[in-house]
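Why do we care about 3D structure at all? Because function follows from shape, and shape follows, mostly, from sequence. That is the central idea of this module. The next example makes it concrete: a single protein chain, its amino acid sequence, and then its structure expressed as C-alpha cells.
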Amino acid sequence: MISKVDCTRLAMPSGSHEPQRDPGLKRKAWLAVFLGSTLFWIVVTLLVWKFWG
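And the structure:
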C-alpha cells in the first residue's frame, strides 16, 4: 500500500532539474489542435451550406 508521503513524493519529485520534454512534442500537439479545429469548421460550413444552400 502506498503511503501519503510516497504519493506526495511521486507527485512532486524533489530535485532541482526540470523534467525533460521532447522539443517536437509541443509543436505536434499544436498542429493537431489546429488541424482538428480546421476540420471541425469545414464540417460545420458544409452542413450549413447543405441545409441552407
